[in-house]
Design a protein that fits this description.
Blueprint: H1 2-13, H2 18-46, H3 53-61, H4 65-82, E1 89-94, H5 96-99, E2 109-114, H6 122-138, E3 143-148, E4 155-159
Antiparallel strand pairs: 1-2, 3-4
Length: about 160
Amino acid sequence: SVKHEQLVQDINRSNKSLRGKVEDIIDYIESDEQQLLQKESLNALHNCEPGQELCFMFKQHKMNDETLSSAYKRIEACLKDELRPLMGVELQPFGSTVSGLALKGSDIDLHIKLLNNTRTTKNSTKQAFNRLEIILQRSNNFNEVIPIRNARVPIIKCKH
């Protein structure tokens, strides 16, 4: 395609670093994949039974149960390993992971319950939150660790 040829010429001509060239290629791939997905979705929507459009779109973008289960198990195993110093945690999934409404690219929501934390004062909760954050920050398995302390329920967002 013309777009592809232009990308190749731009990459070959530019003085960009290797990283910059790789980022350009990734942007190209992602945009082409998105365009293909949009075309497939539009074509399928036109062939849908009237009134079934929302159901179809959900099925089209829903995360496969097997993929979701596999991703959850990998994250659970990593978290349990990383949180071993806390001596006893229970991971409880919630949200779209449990409800079956997870879409492709959805996050996985987990509640981390500390089993040996008998006293739950505001201070002990804050200390536990800080320990969790430090463990995740130091981990090689998790990145982009963002603590959100001021939420009604404190949250630590991260990527695996």
